[in-house]
Amino acid sequence: MNHNLALTDEALLTIEKPERYIGNEVNSVIKDKGQIDIRFAFCFPDVYEIGMSHLGIQILYGMFNSYSDVWCERVYSPWMDMDALMRDKNIPLFALESQDPVKDFDFLGFTIQYEMCYTNILQVLDLSGIPLKSDDRTWDDPIVIGGGPCTYNPEPIADFFDIFYIGEGETRYRELFDLYKDTKKKGISREDFLHEAAKIPGIYVPSFYEVRYKGDGTIDSMNPVFDDIPRTIKKEMCTDLSHEFYPTKPVVPYIKITQDRVVLEIMRGCIRGCRFCQAGQLYKPLREKDVEYLKKIAIEALENTGYEEISLSSLSSSDYSKLPELIDFLIKSCNEKKINISLPSLRIDAFSLDVMSKVQDVKKSSLTFAPEAGTQRMRDVINKGLTEEDILRGSHEAFLGGWNKVKLYFMLGLPTETDEDIYGIGDIANKVAVEYFETVPKEKRGGRTIDIVASTSFFVPKPFTPFQWAPMNTKEEFLDKANKTRKGIMSQLNQKHIKYNWHEADASMMEGIFARGDRKLCDVILKAYEKGCVFDAWSEYFNFEKWMDTFKECGVDPFFYTTRQRADDEIFPWDLIDCGVTKAFLLREWKNALAGKKSMNCRQGCLGCGAASYGVGVCTESKVNA
Amino acid sequence: MHKLRLKFSKNGPIKFIGHLDVMRYFQKAIRRAGVDIKYSEGFSPHQVLSFAQPLSVGATSDGEYLDMTVNSMNSIQEVMNSLNSVMNEGIKIVAIAELDEREEKAMTTSYAAKYHLKFRENSKPDFDWVSAMKSYLAKDNLPAIKKTKSGEKDIDMKPMILKYEFGEDCLDILLMMSSKVTLKPTLLFEYFFRSMGREFNTVWLDIHRVDIYRDFQDGEKTYIEPFIPGDTDERIYLND
Questions:
Q1: What is the mean pLDDT of chain B?
Q2: ipTM score assigned to the predicted complex
Q3: Which of A235, A267, A472, B135 fits A167 for a cystine, CB–CB 3.0-4.6 Å?
Q4: Helix or strand holding residue A399 (H, E)
Q5: Same structural domain for residues B96 and B180?
Q6: Which one of B21, B39, B206 has the shortest CB-CB distance to A254?
Q7: How many CB atoms lie within 10 A of CB A555?
């Protein structure tokens, strides 16, 4: 136990939730500073409860700490009350385990999971006393390294990072650490270290790449400044997940966090190829973990943490080939120990309904469908396999099983969307209600009735998807569409059984700007932070007007990144990164989308996306249509 | 089935863990230790844990109590060892007693708590608080307004103070803590400071709970002793 807290008792007692800052949780790792060579501060740039819920940090935290020469500690964004206190009292940001200042570490790593955390990265650097820009750092500062989904287009935050690690973290960190130790021994310059690091596969050093723009603001060329570093950086990927490190002793927080349970990752990747989905492309190909390995991991993690709940994690758990066997095993072993099983959104069918009725209270739980769009035409455009028939058949069976709550998820602003697609949302919701009344006769309802919640989010085109060329709607268009959706629902016969929720349009627009942004945004983000923008993912702190003012001041047009239709041959900022799927494949899929043509999933047949170059997972299975 | 009462200490940085989180901490620790605890009935069974009295955030303790029922065990010592083997350093089980089945919960039978009070290192008063407190406590009555859920209530703190003794720059004090009457050290200090025309901030006070007591009748006399008395604990007779 570390008794030397960075903050005084008085300070900790004046802020909200002091437990966020005291470390000492079960399974947190304390090492002897004198016995290690590399101190790594791993940051999730959001508040503790969010950051602690993230599986990726738990994986790398466990893996790094399994190295005898490395001590990895955790850092989260201080909440605004703590932020004020630290600035007021001049307390530098510290890591939770040792409570030592982050500035004294060798590495400061950020996992970057969503665009709206960019200003929080600057907050962490700032409170640590580390120069915000890579150019201004010296050997007195840690090497600042970023990873995670947003780093597949790291350009809007390129100035703030020394290194980006592209791909899955399990593969190259050991090499990077060894290089660092060697460098320190030889006493070479920071720049030379970065130069050597840039030669490691998956390592992108943004300052070594020069970007030239055309008159219209699009990119003319992107070139490395050295001949001996790659032109594009290829995603790193684990080839054998059943023999990789997996944390069976994750840190267990004292306070309730968002994901307060054992998380069992059953596979990576997805076969589905929904055209709006970035994760589906980034983590290709689908790689399942061995079911016996998963059983062992599940039991160990439950024993080591004492959690009362376990949850399966993947992009589409129904596609895991040994799912019935795994769930059977979990139900048997968890029932004895009174442990709950929380199932991710499974495809609703006889199997999943049977399983769900065993692990949850049917009367309280709800069914979830994500049709994503209101008409079959629109669903074909986005290549979402779910049909209206699937939804109604699944609902019918569920209503027979006693369910009466249904959640429906949709997106507004998809490419080629028409009013018919928008009004289709109300139609589907109504048909589900009708299905209930037809399936469950009045005398069997027991005073209950159907309860439908339809939610829409605004579509944000993302890099490395077929929709990376697509124009995004404006805020006004979004709100108009949400209004039409509401009217469409209100005009339905069963409208009083349907509740409608929609997301904020301002935040979606910001996300759209950052997602497909370029290096010109670095200045905007820096300036917005200096003007007080932080915690943009939190509606109580997000200040859209301040952001728009900053764009104006910096002379950057935000709509350049959102509403513009991109030419087929435009060079994108993220073309420096090779995520495994080719641009030619994505373009083919974009054309298929515009033509309303569906594509097969990876198990039906190979679309030649490029991920087969890794030679693993679903790419090596025999195909149904082969 | 065995009804058990656990006595535990809470020290170090763990003092910042709130009451509900301590409960969640124990639920996980009990599962890690593999203790065969009794679960509630119903669709989502949960462990039934009952704490004597919540300890405020920032306070340490050597005498907290927790009641639970186990379906089976080999010995009390084994339950204690297996729990301590999975505990964080800051929380330690110091004693376990097996209770009679009809025994009431600690929550409903607690009577008083003993505190060791001093000021935190950076918040020491700039006056001789020990002498001032001595004369304050010597008064016949100590009026205060206690804020409760239902509003404010005029109370006299004097009869709620059962016993006290000053040390060097510190105060050991026994205060009522039952389901009917409870006096918190912070309220006493707030009114003590007020009596001197000074402001008081609760974060200045370093509160250590030494133990929690229950009351017994011995003929005409009432005495109190800790829920699980140690070898050196003696009965404290009241109203003599």
A1: 94
A2: 0.94
A3: A235
A4: helix A388-400
A5: no
A6: B21
A7: 9
